[in-house]
Structures are given as structure tokens and as C-alpha cells.
Amino acid sequence: MTPDDLRPATRPTMYFIGVSTTSSAIHRVFAAWRPLLGLDGVDLVGIDVPVGAEPEVYRKVVAHLRDDEHSRGALVTTHKLDLYAASRDLLRQVNDDAARLAETSALVARDGWIDGLALDTVTSQMALRSIVPAMAGRDVLVMGAGGAALALCDYFAHRAGDDAPARVTVTDIADQRLAAITADVATGDPAITWRTHRLAPGDVHDDLLVDLAPGALVVNATGMGKDRPGSPLSDAAVFPHGGYAWEFNYRGELGFLRQARNRAEADALTVSDGWRYFVHGWTRAIDAVFDLDIPTEGPDFERLYDAAQELR
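Below the sequence we write its predicted C-alpha cells.
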């Protein structure tokens, strides 16, 4: 549905605020998770908001979630920064990460109040550990500087400790997003060398790959290949040898993922999509919304992961 379609729910409901929510696998996955999590009486409803929507649109969605007696909250994707900027005054409180990063990836609603949480600082770390065994000393190229990229950079700067990368380059087409990352990492680990590059729409990152050391991590956090077509690389791009290519998304045309897989043998690449990130993100958001104490690892988490994996 769109924000204009919002109506009072008839039973407990969790929402999904995205761009094209009807095609998300979460609808099938949530159905499989319901009996495992004791949520049989809960609905999951997607709300489609265009990229770069006006502040009034975000405020309408947040106000509905706050005021609807059956609303329990939402997961937010794509709009984490814009929703926070437009609706901060509607939120009763936010967690420390949300306040520091000025973004929210989950909303929790009860009895006429609504809170905002930034969870990507935790979930990106969980997903990263399953992809790269050790980050210490590596180069990183993060293409895109939205909410998920900001959270990953925040982890490197403030929490990675001895496992921090040596150099991180971040790109975007928007100066304000690069400035937000620069401001956040400025108070972090001084041993990390940070660089930002502003690109024009349509520019590719091929030249930036050349500067990366072998074993580097290359992240597509642009949304290209899911929320909009294309890839931040050309088909002629060559990855750093023995490195890692991480596509944040798991659905869409996924041009970057295709390119990385095509280069996997020649460049000795380890290639990963965003599926485990997706599972971590949703389990953390559901846990926050319903206070379920869902584990982040071990047999109970793997049971949820396996149930989701069967529905890919």
C-alpha cells in the first residue's frame, strides 16, 4: 500500500516501510516465522514510499503508526535518514545510535507513543563477520553513503577495535551524506584513513578499484540494482585480487552482484549478497517490536535462518 492507503488495522500489525515492499521475500519468510516466534495473530503490511519523498509523507506514516491502536511498529529500509529527519519530533525517544547517526531502521509503537531505533550498527556487523573472517588492515570501498553505509562505517570507526580496516573510501552523489559520515568517523579510531569521493549521477567507480590493495572489501550500498537500475561499476571493472564483494541487497536486477560473480574466478573473489544481512535485520527489528529475545547466533537463530533460506 501507499501512505494514502493507510487505514486502522484490525489486529496487531508490524509494518515494512520501503520502496517496493510487495516483492520482498519477507512476506513469505514472516509467514514461516510466525509459528516459530509465537506471532500467529500478527499481520505484516508493506508501505511503499518513493525515494526522496517529501517530509510530510514520512510524517504521515509515522503518525499513523503512533496513533493506530493495533500498530506495533515497523522496519525501515531505504528511508532511514529521510524518515528520521522528517519525523524526529514525533518520536518519544530514540536509542543512542539513532541519535548519533540521525537515522532509524526500526520503529516501536505502543499506546499512543512511538520510538526510533538504529539497528544497522549491530546487524551490519553480524553480516560482515559471516563474509570476511578478519578486517584488520584491509582496504574498504563503500559505494553509497545512505543509512546502511553510515552504520557500517560507524562500526569500523567506533567498535571494530583491533579488527578495524586500514583505509576506508566512501562515495556518494550527495555532499550531505558524505558529510554525515565524515562527521561520525571523525571521533573514531584515528588509525583508520578515511577518504570520501563525490560522484556525479551515472559515474562509475572502476578507477577507485585500482587503488585498493589485494584482499580489499568492496561494498555496493548505492541501492543500484534494487531501488533503481544499474550498477556503480562498468562491466570492465576489475576487483582487487583475493578480495570480497558484498552486495547489500538480495533482490532486484543486482547488476553489481552479477559483475562480481563474473569476475570471481579471475580475481579470486568471495562474493556475497545481502541475504544474511536481510535475516539479521528483520530478526533484530521483530525482536525490538515484539520484545521476543530472539538470539543472534546459535541453534535457535539458525532455525530461523534455515526457514528463511528455504523460501529464497
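The domain at 121-273 is CATH 3.40.50.720 (Rossmann fold).
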